[in-house]
Amino acid sequence: MQIIYGDNMNKNVDKNMIGSKAYNLCFLKENQINVPEFYIIDTNIFKEYMKEISFNIEELLKSVDYDNSNSIEKCSGKIFKLIDSIENISLKNRVCHEVEQILGTKDFFSVRSSGVNEDLEYASFAGQFKTYLNVKYEDIFEYVKKCYKSLYLPNALKYYYQNGIEFGKLQMAVIVQKMIDSDISGVTFTENPKGLLNEMVTIVGIGVGENVVSDKVATTTYYYNKTDKISYYETQENSPVLSNKEFESLIGIFSRLEKLYSYGIDIEWAMKKNEIYILQVRPITTIPKNEEFIILDNSNIVESYPGITLPLTCSFIKEAYGGVFEGVVRRVTQNSNLVNQYKSIYKDMIDFVNGRVYYKISNWYTIIHFLPMSSKIIPIWQEMLGVSNKEYTIRKEFTKLKFSHKLKIYRNAYKLLKNNNKAMEALNQRFLKILELYHTSFKEGMDNRSLVKLYMLIEKGILTDWDLTLINDMYAFIYTGLLKKKIEKIDKDHADKIVNQYISCISNIESMLPVKELISISSYVLSNHRREELLNLKTIEDIQKYLDKEDFLSSRLRKYIELYGDRTLEELKLESKSFRQNPKLLIDKILEYTEDKEKFEKLKNTISREYDTSFDEMILKNTNFINKKQIKKYSKNAVIGIKNREISRLNRSRIYGIVREIFLSIGKNLYHEKLIKEVDDIFYLTKDEIFGFIIDQKHIHFEEIIKARKNSYKIYEKIPSYSRLIFVKNVFNKTHKNINSLEIELDDNKIVGIPCSNGIVTGEVFVVNNPKEVENVKNKILVTKMTDPGWVFLLTVAKGIIAEKGSLLSHTAIISRELGIPSIVGVKNITSILRTGDMIKMDGSSGEIIILERK
Question: DSSP alpha helices (H): ranges in 419-510?
C-alpha cells in the first residue's frame, strides 16, 4: 500500500495511483502549505477490493442509454449492490491498522473521494464524488466503501459519458484526513468563475466547509480585485464578516497558492483559532482556456469619466469613439477593405462595467500596431496616457499586413504628421462654422424630430474630420517622448522636471482662457464692489433676470457663458450640469474666487506667470550644437501639439454642450408628454432608444427602463472603481443585494439574487418542492429552495434554475455552469414569490429576475 504523509512523502508519486485531489494535497504539503494530517488509500486497494466482483462492470456501463435517466439509475443501483456484497475483512484490517499508525484513533476524520479522473483542467467533477465528515475511526472502512460507490453515482456516470472519459479507466483513491472542527470555513476561486480573471472570490460561512457548499449556513461573499488590491463583500442574513487581519491572512495564502499553479484554482479551506488550513485545491473548469482576454483599463479615460457615467453618455461616447477611429483608419490606410476589416475593432474601443467607462485596451493596441514604428510608439503612448500595466495583447487576426499596405500606411502617416499643424488650424475653423450653424439653428421649443435632424447635421459635420485630433495627439505624444529621451541623455535624474518645464506656461493655451477670463471678471467684481449684489442672487430666476440686464457685468457674464459655458467639472458627462444649464454655478465660482482677497491675488499671479527663458540657457549651455537644435525642435513641436490638443479639448466640451442641450430639449418634450417622470431621466436612456422612439416610432416603455437602470446604478455606486478588469469571453456587470452590509433599497417588483451562470432566458416557471415527483420540466425555468448533484438530470432539459439558497460555489451554481444554463441563487422566499405557470425573464449574468406575466 502507498503511504504518503508528512516528511515521509514520496515526491515521485504517481497521480494515477492516488487521484488529482490527493496529488494536490501532496503538492501543497511539499510546498509548506498548512494542510491537516492525511493518509491516502491508493487505487491498488480499490483494484484489490473490486476484483472480487466477478461481473464485468465496464461492459455494464457501456450498455447504458445515457439519454434515459432510469437506465442510468438502474445501472448505478446494480453496481452499488455489488460493492456492498463484498466482505474483505483482511483488507479492512490492513487499512484501519495503517490509519491508526499514521493518524491515531482518537480524532474524528474526514473521508474524501479522490477519483483518478477528478479535478482535471477540462473536467472538475466538482460536487460529483462524496466527502464524509466527522467519521469515527471504527467506521472509516465503511465510508471508504461509500467513496468507492460514489464513483458510480448516476450524475457521475452521465458526466463520464458527456466528457468522453473511458469507463475502463475509472478508479478511486480515498483520503483519510484529521477532521478540522473549524470556526469558519469557505471556498475561494482565484479567478471569478463567471469569467473575471483578475478578481478573486471568497465565500465564507460558520462551521465546516460542507455546510457552506451545501447551503446549510448563511454565507458572506468577498470580491477581491488582484490588480488594485481592493475588495468588498456581500452578506446574507446573520452571515459572518471577517476582520481585516483575517481577510488579509487569507488573501496572502491564496495569492501564494495561485503562484504555485499555472491556472485558476478553487480552494477549500478552514480556520480554527486563527490558524488557516487548506483542505483541497482543484482547477476551475468553467473558464474557457483558449479564449482571448478582454482587457479593460481606465488609464487616462478615468480623468474624463470619473465615477459613475449614465447610459446616454455611454451610448454617445461609444459611437463617437467608433466614428473617430474609423476616420483614423480610413485616413491612414486609404483602403476600404482594411477599413471594413478593422470595423469590429474601432467600433469597440471603449466599454462599460458597473456604470464606469474603460478603454478596451487590446483594441487600442491593435489599432496602434499598424502604425509606423509601433514598437516605439506604444511605450510613448503608454507613458503619455499613464498606463501603469505595460503588458498588452494584439488581436491575432489583425497582426499581419501586406508589405504594400504597410508602405502606404507609413507614407500616409508621415504626411499626416508633417501637415498636422495646418490640418488642426483648418479643423478649428471648420468647427467654429459648425458651432455658428448650431446656434443659428437651435431654438427653444423645437419638436423632437427637428432636434434629431439638427443632431445628425451637427454629427456629420463634426465627425468628418474629428479624427485629426487623434493624429495630433500622436504628434504631441511623439515629440514629448522624443524630448524626454533627449533630456534624459543630458540629465537623467531631473528629466521629468525639465520636460515639464518645457511644456508648461504655454502662451495663450486654449484650456486656460476660461480660467483667465473668469479671474478677470472676478477682479472686476472686487475692484468695483459688485460682490454683494451677486451674493443677493438666491434663485435661478434671480440670476436669469440679472443676466438679462443691460449692464457691463451682466453682459460679460452672458459672453462668458456663450464662450465657455460648457466647461465644467466632468464636462464630458452629458448628465453633468454646466454653467450654461445652471448659471448659479458660475455665480458661486466667482463668489468663491472673491471670498479671500489675499488668496485671489496669489491665484492671479499664478495664472499670469510667463515662461522663464533663462531656463533654456541653463539646460542647453552644457550640450553640443546638434542636441540644442534637436531639443528646440522637439520642444517646439511638442508645444504646438499640446496647444492644438487643448484647442480641440475646449471645442470638444462645446460639442458635448451641443449634445447635452439637444437631449435635454428632447427630455423636456418627453416630460411634457408624460413619457418620463423627470427631464433628467433622459440620461438613463441610450441614444438608440431615444432616436428609435422618435424616428422609427418604436413602442418603448421608458419609465420601466429608467426605473430598472436607476436600481442598477444604486448598486454600481457602491462597488469600488477598478483600474483594470480582465474578462474572458464576455464582459458583465455586477448585481448585489447589499455591499459591505449596506442594504440597497430596490423597487419591490424587481427580484435580485446572486448571478452564478451567464445567460438570459424567458420562460415558464416550474416551482419544484420535491424533485422526485417532477415529471416534465423541459424548457421550464426551475425554481426551488436548494439543489443537490442529482439535479443534473432535471437541469439538462431546463431553461434555467433559480434557488433560495446558495452561493457562487453551491451545487446549483457548479452544475449550471457545467451545463451552460443560466442560474441565480440566494433569492430569498422565491418559492413563495413565484408560482408554477408564471412567465419570467431571468438574467444569469446580473442576477435579475423580472415577472412578465402571472398565471
Answer: 420-441, 448-463, 468-490, 495-502
Q: Pick the closest to residue 314 from 356, 374, 266 (CA basis).
A: 356
pLDDT per residue over 700-719, tens digit each?
889 999 999 999 999 999 99
Burial string for 4-26 (b: 16+ CB within 10 Å, else e) reads bbeeeeeeebeeebbbbbbbbbb
**Strand 356-360 with 293-297, pairing:** antiparallel
- Cell numbers placing 634: 522637439
Would you say 329 and 346 are in contact if contact means Cβ atoms under 8 Å apart? yes
Phi, psi of 737 (to 5 degrees): -85, -35
Q: For strand 742-743 and strand 738-739, is the pairing parallel, antiparallel, or unpaired? A: antiparallel
CB burial of 666-689 (b: ≥16 within 10 Å; e: otherwise) equals bbbbbbeeeebeebebbbbbbbeb
CA distance 125 to 173: 15
CB 69 within 8 A of CB 99: no
780-784 and 760-767 strand pairing: parallel
Grid coordinates in use for 48?
Answer: 484489490
Give the ranges where 174-243 is alpha helix by DSSP (H).
209-213
Residue 122, exposed/middle/buried by CB under 10 A (0-12, 13-18, 19+)?
exposed
- Which residue is associated with the grid cell 416610432? 697
Rounded alpha-carbon distances, angstroms, from residue 64 to 103, 115, 161: 41, 21, 10
Residue with cell 462599460: 352
pLDDT tens digits, 443-462: 999 999 999 999 999 999 99
- The CA distance from 512 to 245, in Å, is 48
The predicted-structure confidence for 472-514, as pLDDT tens digits, reads as follows 988 888 888 888 888 888 777 777 667 766 766 565 677 778 8
Q: How far is CA 267 from CA 199, 247, 443, in A?
A: 14, 15, 63
Query: And the C-alpha cell for 4?
Result: 504518503
> What is the distance between the alpha carbons of residues 642 and 629, in angstroms, rounded to a whole number?
20
Q: Using alpha carbons, list the distances in angstroms from residue 17 to 10, 41, 432, 433, 792.
A: 12, 9, 78, 79, 29
Distances (CA, A) of 515 to 143, 522, 639, 645: 78, 10, 20, 17
Whole-angstrom distance, CA of residue 106 vs CA of residue 367:
67
Q: Tell me how far apart the alpha carbons of residues 213 and 190 are, in angstroms, rounded to a whole number.
A: 17
Report the distance separating Cα 801 and Cα 100, nearest Å: 45
Please tell me the pTM assigned to this model: 0.81
Q: Please state, in angstroms and rounded to a whole number, the distance separating the CA atoms of residues 386 and 356.
A: 18
CA distance 338 to 257: 45
In angstroms, rounded to a whole number, what is the distance separating the alpha carbons of residues 20 and 280? 10
User: Among candidates 659, 654, 663, 665, which has minimal Cα distance to 444?
Assistant: 665
